[in-house]
Amino acid sequence: MSERKSILPDQQPAGSPSPGEPVFLAVGKLGRPHGVRGEIFLHILTDFPDRLKDGITVFLGLDHKPIEILSHRWHVNALLLSFADYNTPEAVATLTNQYVFVKAEDRPPLPDGEYYHHQIIGLKVVDEQGQILGTLTQILETGANDVYVVLPPQGAEILLPAIEDVILRVDLDLGQIVVRLMPGLLPD
């Protein structure tokens, strides 16, 4: 799971862990080495890249190997990182294509009405009358607003814009999102 957030209307607090949440969240994917000092590109997968600073421990790969960030700096749209014990391009190249994780318990808290993607993916989506539309399976990030991909029990997927007129309520305790279906949102 990546550490992205969605902004939704709701009255309950967000950002607090609940049972079954992941232990680690991906914050980036390592790209190619850069320069001769052992720096490597990190392609950002988080809305909070500012916390990836010198001295912070992150976790690499699916085995979540702990490693300390020695230095960080922005280069174009990516972060250049260097790690302890990886001080040559050849050494750091062995980390290429690995995901960088942080512990879920260390994620920043979100204001009310905002959720991390992993908190809402998998929730049931129901209309105002309680009819089950399907399960939220994916969140597409567009320029204007996110779009929720809902997989119904039968038929084509439903694309719902994540706007206040459509997303009425998120209830993490009940495991559901209540939506108002505007004309044209359901496939024919």
Structure, explained:
- It is built from 2 helices and 14 strands.
- Helices cover 5% and strands 43% of the residues.
- It has a 6-stranded antiparallel β-barrel with strand order 2-3-6-5-4-7. A 6-stranded mixed beta sheet has the order 12-11-10-9-14-13, with no helix packed on it. It has a two-stranded antiparallel ribbon with strand order 1-8.
- Residues 5-19 have low confidence and may be disordered.
- It has 2 domains: 24-106, RimM (Elongation Factor Tu (Ef-tu), domain 3); 115-179, Roll (SH3 type barrels).
- It is mainly beta.
- It has helices at residues 89-93, 117-120; strands at 5-7, 24-34, 39-44, 57-60, 65-75, 78-83, 99-103, 114-116, 124-127, 132-140, 147-151, 158-161, 167-171, 176-179.
Helix content: under 10%
| First-residue to last-residue Cα separation | 32 Å
Spatial order of the strands forming the largest sheet: 2-3-6-5-4-7
Low-confidence stretches: 5-19
Structural class: mainly beta
Using DSSP, what is the number of strands?
14
H-E string: EEEEEEHEEHEEEEEE
Estimate what percentage of residues fall within beta strands: 35-45%
Supply the CATH class of the largest domain.
Mainly Beta
Query: CATH-wise, what's the superfamily of the largest domain?
Result: RimM
The number of domains: 2
What spatial form do the alpha-carbon principal axes imply? Answer: elongated
Which secondary structure elements does this structure contain, and how are they paired or packed?
Elements: E1 5-7, E2 24-34, E3 39-44, E4 57-60, E5 65-75, E6 78-83, H1 89-93, E7 99-103, E8 114-116, H2 117-120, E9 124-127, E10 132-140, E11 147-151, E12 158-161, E13 167-171, E14 176-179
Parallel strand pairs: 9-14
Antiparallel strand pairs: 1-8, 2-3, 2-7, 3-6, 4-5, 4-7, 5-6, 9-10, 10-11, 11-12, 13-14
